[in-house]
UniProtKB/TrEMBL annotation:
Enzymatic reactions: alpha-L-rhamnose = beta-L-rhamnose
Positions annotated to bind substrate: 18, 41, 76-77
Gene from which this protein is expressed: rhaM
Family: Belongs to the rhamnose mutarotase family.
Source organism per UniProt: Stakelama pacifica
Positions annotated as active site in the UniProt record: 22 (proton donor)
Highest rank taxon of the organism: Bacteria
HAMAP family given in the database record: L_rham_rotase
PANTHER family for the chain: L-RHAMNOSE MUTAROTASE
Protein name (database record): L-rhamnose mutarotase
Protein keywords: Carbohydrate metabolism, Cytoplasm, Isomerase, Rhamnose metabolism
Amino acid sequence: MTIHAFRMRLKPGMVDEYRRRHDAIWPELSALLTQSGIHDYSIFLDEETLALFAVMKVDGDDRRDALPDHPVMKRWWAHMAPLMETHADNRPVEAPLQLMFHHA
């Protein structure tokens, strides 16, 4: 298992809608994440900067490389694109975060 953390950013005024959409996450997306080896996935918000900090655990059989080509993932990214900073293909702009400390 590995832990991956990254930062994304919301557009101003989109906090409530971002939370609403994630509270109603599509079952097919949740299943896809699990099938891709992702579990224990959390996203935190810094309300002052609108930065989102995501942390996920990925099992040994990491299959995340296939996610950008999956129709469900593409549809989710298109659904979320109006709320956050994205690339031209609607993928969220992500910046990896370096682990500085972990207490288990």
